[in-house]
Design brief:
By secondary structure, the chain is an all-alpha fold. Helices cover about 75% and strands about 0% of the residues. It has 3 helices and no strands. The longest helix has 22 residues, at about 20-45. The model has no long low-confidence stretch (mean pLDDT about 95).
Length: about 60
Amino acid sequence: MSPKIKALAHQTIDELPEGATLEDLQQELYELQILEKALASREAGRLVPHDEAREQVLARLRKA
């Protein structure tokens, strides 16, 4: 496990409120994972701007 991941996990645990459950921790870690994947996709140029995506969806709906 990378030091960055370990530090992020420790930070996440430290920031949980008193009384947080393991499910709360799992949810936080899952959300961090989703954000990391989204950032990697953005950096790789795999994301489409909202306006462009909207136009693509509308164009497909018009064809249907």
